[in-house]
Amino acid sequence: MDGEGLYYSGRVLWVVKSGNRLYGKVLDDYPYYVEVNGDSSFCTCPLGGNCEHVRAVKIAYERGFYFDCPDEEPFGEGCAYSMLNSVPELRWRVLLRELEHALETDESGSDAAKLFYEAFNILGKDPDARKLTLIGVLLNEYSALFPDYALTERLKSEFQRLRIRSVG
Question: Which run of H or E residues covers position 18?
Fold first, then answer.
């Protein structure tokens, strides 16, 4: 998929402008991190830069899809998640997109498990029946992919505790 396709399919999770640099996270075969500094670029994909992920981040920036980081940071991810956490519904949507992507691509289940715990943390603070139902569906998908993992049982147990707390 080219940069426009990545952007228009919603695979650019976030873009941060910090000083003269842009940082971004793009979901493709794997999650890739991008840094753009003027004419030079870096990407964690096999091409290393000057790729469709860099183009997608630039398109997002040009379309106004970015956070302006108040302080110049050496890494954009911290600023991005700080900004996302200040807008809980946006953070939830990004988390769901990351989780859905991880279920499609994460061969070990590790990234998906981390994201489930983040979702549980959010839901523990603000239980929402609709969000719980959605996480339950995704957890069933995870369970089907990783049925023999002890971690799967821990995730299911934690989810069950969340559901009980939200009802009571």
Answer: strand 12-18
